Amino acid sequence: MGKRTLARLTPQAAPEGAPDMVGSSSALQRVRSLIDKIAPTDRPLLILGETGTGKEVVARRIHALSGYAEGPFVDVNCGAIPESLVESELFGHVKGAFTGASAYRPGTFSQATKGTLFLDEIGELPVALQPKLLRVLETRLFRPVGSAEPLHFEGRIIAATHRDLRAMVAEGSFREDLYYRLAVFTVELPTLEQRRGDIPDLVRHFALRQPRPLSFSPAALSLLRQQPWPGNIRQLRNLIDQLGVLAETPEIGLAVLEPFLAHAPEPRLREDEIAEALLRLPGDDKLLAAENLLIDHALARCDGNKSAAAKVLGVSRKVIERRLKSRDAPLQRMRDLLDDARLLVDSARYREAIVTLRRCLKLQGEGDGEGEEEALLLFDVYRLLGISLRSVNGWLCAEAQDCYQAALNLGRGDPLERAHLQFGIWGAQLMALDLVKARASAQDMIQHALSQSLGDALGDAYVALANTLFWLGDAEEALACLARCQLLGVDRTEERLGGQGIDLANLALTLEGLAAFRLGSFAQARKALAMLVRRLETQRFHAFNHALTLQGAAWLSCLFEEREATGTHGSALETLSREYGFTFYQGVGQIFRGIHEGWEGEPGVAEAVIQEGYDTLLVRRGGRLFHSFQAWHRALALLAAGRSQEALAAADLGVEVAMQTQDRAYLGELLVVRARARRALGEEEEACQDLYGALSTAQALGSVAARVEAATALAQVLRETGRAAAGTELLTRALRGVALSEAPPLVQRALALLATDADH
Ligand SMILES: Nc1ncnc2c1ncn2[C@@H]1O[C@H](COP(=O)(O)OP(=O)(O)OP(=O)(O)O)[C@@H](O)[C@H]1O
């Protein structure tokens, strides 16, 4: 929105004034449904998306649908105000506050009172002003420049940016606390290329708004669908506007369209864009970084020939040699900094370590980057930076992953340290639900541990593989993995710390319980649960291991529908994780607390709690694991709340994600709940198909639990449609071989249905 400079006022925008959001792609539908949910709240909101994707449209729509619609929509572009004026522009100033302040002037916060303040290009907000905005978000108070009296802000803040704010947080140019305050809800807009299916509708929409309405031939529409759209919807709209004025005829076929595409300006890099990109180079000294980049690039283009590179750069060969030589001196400095960083990491002062290690990396950019010693130093720099970043930003911190990978790519380092790095990479892949990569990483870890005879790392590796296989739906192989590292049937006192300091014994008990439950070995699963609970009561674990153990206890209690225990363990997990900053596990705990709320008769609350736990705690950190599990329980809660259409949507999305990611852990259960939602909506036939699908999926995956669930639901349908005998037979077959001792309620429900069949 470089088009605006200062704030603009729109006096009112009633709901009917909500701007059009054309498009029916699933990506846009998701955005729309998110908007509908978020709009009525008064919480801040962050809209992310490339230029021209419709961030302002979304902001206006949210305003129009919100409780603030009667108030003004004030739109301010933080990037377009000179830095020295931003504060008075936002907060206003009193008379005499500075030279030229001849009268009181209200700022945009005052103008937007009882309305919506849209802070566009929030990434450009000067660092010095960020604490002031944070203060408004925390206290709702702000002070005009030169005034001692705080004023109250009664509106809602919506921020937007095309920048990667999380990267800005990581590099320190955007405050983390402000980021989390703004991003209470985040709407991420797809690019036009991610929703090409919407192009024909958008074209028609803009075509009708021309002075002489245009019509497009199917071939022209198809060509438009194939174009690159770096400027997104704005670029498309501009093209249609041009056609509206300049095309010879309003019937737009290929012949009319093509010349306009050919004349579309080539996307060229402007100087300010080049400069912006250079300013994002790592390190403090951007001038030096830019110079190094140019020299390295010229050398790479000339296959390392210095004379040729000098020619490309328009300097003498001597200049290049001098600059390259001056990069050697940093090696000693790098050693010194690395020593400092080691001490900082050892004393858990990770934030300071990050700063020191980044300085090291900057020096590396100045060395010639080839010597063996430098490579060894770099291995440690990347390794320690990865560890520090992960400790501050969580497991899924993308930059930490890049550091681990960079260290591994150097092909150096101690084997045990390399094993640790592999484990870090695997953990992040698993949490991001990148199961195929996670399986390959776990297999690499086993290989590496075996070839280097690393005992501790081997335990980690097998548990990692068992964990991945569980999510891939292979419960049997997961148990075999645990057996291979002697971690099956762990008893009360057994201890097994892996190379990462993770308590493998408790993790193995959790996995054993889950896999056994899936395979219908309910007694084994119950024993694992009981053991986890006893260990929680009798052993003292490090906080992280305590969290992992609580997770296992809550999860297994949930499968056995032990209501009280699910709530207790879930809440304990949530509290502990909040205290220690294990955001991901806090989200997991919240999901179990939500499930418990549902059982307590509050399904609407349950759904909201589960969704918030997943969306804001797991997903915010980049995690996607547990998608199928939470989708299954959200859909169940929605069904219980009588919101069948939403239940269907939640289950549908769950199935879609499960299919995409090969997360088959709860696929059968998801198909069953989807079928139940369809039945509630009267879609009997589709429901039946889903149930047969669920049954065969469960059978293919060897999931006894899902098989019994599916067969029970199907028997119910058959009974209600006059085919009770077929239902009885199907259910009897599904229950064949299922051990009844310690069986969970889902089996009891199947038996109860059979018993009523027998009565009939
Ligand atoms: N879903 C939509 N349906 C119809 N028109 C749209 C839609 N989304 C965006 N537009 C139109 O595309 C143009 C760009 O939208 P908008 O200004 O909201 O984008 P933006 O992401 O805020 O861009 P920038 O970051 O460059 O400021 C506007 O003309 C807007 O009306």
Automatic annotation (TrEMBL):
<dbReference type="InterPro" id="IPR011990">
    <property type="entry name" value="TPR-like_helical_dom_sf"/>
</dbReference>
<keyword id="KW-0547">Nucleotide-binding</keyword>
<dbReference type="InterPro" id="IPR058031">
    <property type="entry name" value="AAA_lid_NorR"/>
</dbReference>
<dbReference type="InterPro" id="IPR002197">
    <property type="entry name" value="HTH_Fis"/>
</dbReference>
<dbReference type="GO" id="GO:0043565">
    <property type="term" value="F:sequence-specific DNA binding"/>
</dbReference>
<dbReference type="InterPro" id="IPR009057">
    <property type="entry name" value="Homeodomain-like_sf"/>
</dbReference>
<dbReference type="InterPro" id="IPR002078">
    <property type="entry name" value="Sigma_54_int"/>
</dbReference>
<dbReference type="GO" id="GO:0000160">
    <property type="term" value="P:phosphorelay signal transduction system"/>
</dbReference>
<keyword id="KW-0067">ATP-binding</keyword>
<keyword id="KW-0010">Activator</keyword>
<dbReference type="Pfam" id="PF02954">
    <property type="entry name" value="HTH_8"/>
</dbReference>
<dbReference type="GO" id="GO:0006355">
    <property type="term" value="P:regulation of DNA-templated transcription"/>
</dbReference>
<feature type="region of interest" description="Disordered">
    <location>
        <begin position="1"/>
        <end position="23"/>
    </location>
</feature>
<dbReference type="InterPro" id="IPR027417">
    <property type="entry name" value="P-loop_NTPase"/>
</dbReference>
<dbReference type="GO" id="GO:0005524">
    <property type="term" value="F:ATP binding"/>
</dbReference>
<feature type="domain" description="Sigma-54 factor interaction">
    <location>
        <begin position="21"/>
        <end position="245"/>
    </location>
</feature>
<keyword id="KW-0902">Two-component regulatory system</keyword>
<dbReference type="Pfam" id="PF25601">
    <property type="entry name" value="AAA_lid_14"/>
</dbReference>
<dbReference type="Pfam" id="PF00158">
    <property type="entry name" value="Sigma54_activat"/>
</dbReference>
<dbReference type="InterPro" id="IPR025662">
    <property type="entry name" value="Sigma_54_int_dom_ATP-bd_1"/>
</dbReference>
<dbReference type="InterPro" id="IPR025944">
    <property type="entry name" value="Sigma_54_int_dom_CS"/>
</dbReference>
<dbReference type="InterPro" id="IPR003593">
    <property type="entry name" value="AAA+_ATPase"/>
</dbReference>
<keyword id="KW-0805">Transcription regulation</keyword>
<keyword id="KW-0804">Transcription</keyword>
<protein>
    <submittedName>
        <fullName>Transcriptional regulator, NifA subfamily, Fis family</fullName>
    </submittedName>
</protein>
